[in-house]
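seq as requested:
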Amino acid sequence: MSRVEALAGAQFGILTRAQCLGLGMTPDAIRWLLRSGRWRRVHHGVYAEHVGTLEWHARVSAALLSCGDGAVASIARQLGSMDCWTTTRTTLRC
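struct tokens:
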């Protein structure tokens, strides 16, 4: 398993351009993965290493990576869907 694949696995299949470049990928390699359909762009500079529907954890991971250091996501909506409390609000602060 490559370092890129290992990092993606730890982040629910989500990677940033900066992370990929930092792990030795070239801009051409990233472009090829996107154009070939192996990866898809989720947000500016944030990619999913698979296509299809993103699970909730992957969507949150993508949002947080897009927002950068210090980003925080509330799990109120997820807890609400598990009947932990009645609110259905999700907060993402960038």
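DSSP finds five helices and five strands in the chain.
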